[in-house]
């Protein structure tokens, strides 16, 4: 297992287009998290899954954002009708559901909306 | 909101110990203290965590005060590759991690 994998690494899109990012977690991890990070800020929580169930969504996650984890393995994050304010690094992390266990983050997908 | 307070930036000479402080005065009894770091353009990397006792691993040491209201991350022999943003986070149960703005550590030659 090579860790958490995110694709693509970079995405440039025109305003109004839809984009989809993929995250492949560490295989034995049952928790999967999505974060967003803008320049100079720490990562902001967006949503997380335990297996295939989406357990929490941040109020930051507008209706244009949707995430899935259909079989409890990989996850996708889709942004519809992108806006310039969506430009950010989107980070995925996976973990076991234990307080005594840290997250493993992927390298992120950098989205630029032009 | 983040429950921790960290200085925005620190410098450290290469080869010297880097001591990064964190205040978490409202921490509750079942909250763990976690440290992550983020090197430019990469995802955050787990460093260490603890509840009450001091902890040490191959990367760092974590010193937690007896009242648990503050902690210090120690990088014993800082290298240029330790230049990064360091995040101190308190976490209850299996709650999500909430990041603040962290401390930007600059290690200089």
User: Please, what is the average pLDDT of chain B?
Assistant: 93
Order of helices and strands of chain B: EEEEEEEEE
Numbering strands along the chain, what is their spatial order in the largest sheet of chain B?
1-9-8-3-4
Low-confidence stretches of chain B: none
Describe the structure.
The complex is a heterodimer of chains A (114) and B (109). Chain A has 114 residues and is mostly beta strands. Helix content of chain A is 0%, strand content 49%. Chain A has no helices and eleven strands. In chain A, strands 2, 4, 5, 6, 9, 10 and 11 form a seven-stranded mixed β-sheet that branches. Chain A has a four-stranded antiparallel β-sheet with strand order 1-3-8-7, with no helix packed on it. The termini of chain A are far apart. The model of chain A has no long low-confidence stretch (mean pLDDT 93). Chain B is mainly β. Helix content of chain B is 0%, strand content 48%. Chain B has no helices and nine strands. In chain B, strands 1-9-8-3-4 form a five-stranded mixed β-sheet, with no helix packed on it. Chain B starts with 8 loop residues before the first strand and ends with a strand. The model of chain B has no long low-confidence stretch (mean pLDDT 93). The A-B interface holds A 4, 31, 33, 35, 40-45, 48, 56, 91, 93, 97-100, 102-108 and B 2, 32, 34, 36, 42-46, 49, 85, 87, 91-102.
Gist of the model:
The complex is a heterodimer of chains A (114) and B (109). With 114 residues, chain A is mainly beta. Chain A has no helices and 11 strands.
Set down the secondary structure blueprint.
The complex is a heterodimer of chains A (114) and B (109).
Chain A: E1 5-7, E2 10-13, E3 19-24, E4 31-37, E5 44-50, E6 53-57, E7 65-68, E8 75-79, E9 88-95, E10 104-105, E11 109-113
Parallel strand pairs in A: 2-11
Antiparallel strand pairs in A: 1-3, 3-8, 4-5, 4-9, 5-6, 7-8, 9-10, 9-11
Chain B: E1 9-13, E2 18-23, E3 31-38, E4 45-50, E5 55-56, E6 61-64, E7 70-75, E8 84-92, E9 103-108
Parallel strand pairs in B: 1-9
Antiparallel strand pairs in B: 2-7, 3-4, 3-8, 5-6, 6-7, 8-9
């Amino acid at each position: 297992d090579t860790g958490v994998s995110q694709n693509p690494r970079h995405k440039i899109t025109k305003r109004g287009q839809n984009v989809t990012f993929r995250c492949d977690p560490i295989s034995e991890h049952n928790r999967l998290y999505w974060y967003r990070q803008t320049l100079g800020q720490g990562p902001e929580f967006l949503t997380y899954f335990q297996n295939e169930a989406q357990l929490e969504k941040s109020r930051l996650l507008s209706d244009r954002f949707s995430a899935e984890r259909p079989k409890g393995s990989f996850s996708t994050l889709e942004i519809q009708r992108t806006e310039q304010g969506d430009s950010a690094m989107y980070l995925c992390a996976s973990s076991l559901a234990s307080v005594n266990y840290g997250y493993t983050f992927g390298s992120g997908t950098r989205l630029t909306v032009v | 909101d983040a429950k921790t307070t960290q200085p925005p930036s620190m410098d450290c000479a290469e080869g010297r110990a880097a001591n990064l402080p964190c205040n978490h005065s409202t921490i509750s009894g079942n909250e763990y203290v976690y440290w992550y770091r983020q090197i430019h353009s990469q995802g955050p990397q787990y460093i260490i965590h603890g509840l009450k006792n001091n902890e040490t691993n191959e990367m760092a040491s974590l010193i937690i005060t007896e009242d648990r209201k503050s902690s210090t991350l120690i990088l014993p022999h800082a290298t240029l590759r330790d230049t990064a943003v360091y995040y101190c986070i308190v976490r209850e149960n299996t709650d999500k991690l909430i990041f603040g703005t962290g401390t930007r550590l600059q290690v200089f030659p």
